[in-house]
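Exercise 7. Given the encoded structure of a 216-residue chain, write a plausible sequence.
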């Protein structure tokens, strides 16, 4: 099977089984999504969704957040991983958006990565989810699933994974393919003891063929 054929099988599978896959973070606008994604680093979406309502109630927009102090914001996110850094990142992000972007959340990756707490993955999430730009955010799930399936070959970094995926996924499907891979990694192709018996991608999965099936 060629890599192109493998990608087509995976795309066809997800288009049939998860055509409307989307982020599990709860948000109403770009500001809320940016806050949620910054908080989600090394933290579950479930925990973030439990935390953000209080933040958005007190700071309903980026201007309000720009006036927050550390001591005011920290108690609202102390249950999140790395709360000290994320508190500073959120306040710094809000201030930069107000000062450098006229209060509007940037819509491009080069602009977004200038913001405190925003790396390439976060910027790709924002531009993909909000604006459906063909940007592939690579987190641990995407990295793991792509390698196991054989969609990537010897990719050592998230950027290498991103570049290899973008080479074969049609541009108009990139924004949803991001969610396909994340959700598959979150619920089926988990890091430990992947649920291969439930996975419809077994016919093309290199991990299953080389590590699981021989000993089955």
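Solution.
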């Amino acid at each position: 099977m060629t890599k192109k054929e493998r990608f087509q099988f995976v795309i066809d599978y997800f288009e049939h089984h998860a055509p409307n896959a989307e982020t599990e973070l709860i948000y109403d606008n770009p500001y809320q999504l940016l806050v949620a994604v910054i908080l989600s680093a090394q933290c579950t979406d479930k925990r973030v969704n439990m935390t953000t309502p209080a933040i958005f109630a007190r700071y309903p927009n980026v201007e309000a957040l720009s006036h927050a102090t550390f001591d005011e914001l920290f108690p609202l996110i102390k249950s999140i991983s790395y709360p000290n850094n994320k508190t500073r990142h959120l306040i710094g992000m809000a201030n930069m958006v107000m000062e450098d972007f006229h209060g509007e959340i940037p819509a491009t990756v080069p602009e977004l990565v200038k913001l405190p707490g925003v790396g390439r993955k976060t910027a790709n999430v924002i531009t993909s989810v909000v604006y459906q730009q063909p940007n592939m955010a690579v987190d641990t799930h995407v990295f793991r699933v792509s390698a196991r399936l054989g969609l990537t070959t010897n990719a050592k970094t998230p950027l290498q994974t991103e570049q290899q995926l973008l080479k074969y996924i049609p541009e108009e499907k990139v924004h949803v393919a991001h969610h396909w891979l994340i959700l598959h990694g979150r619920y089926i192709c988990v890091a430990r003891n992947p649920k291969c018996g439930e996975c419809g991608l077994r016919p093309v999965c290199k991990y299953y063929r080389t590590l699981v099936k021989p000993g089955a």
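Remark. The chain is about 60% helix and 0% strand. Students should compare their own answers with the one above.
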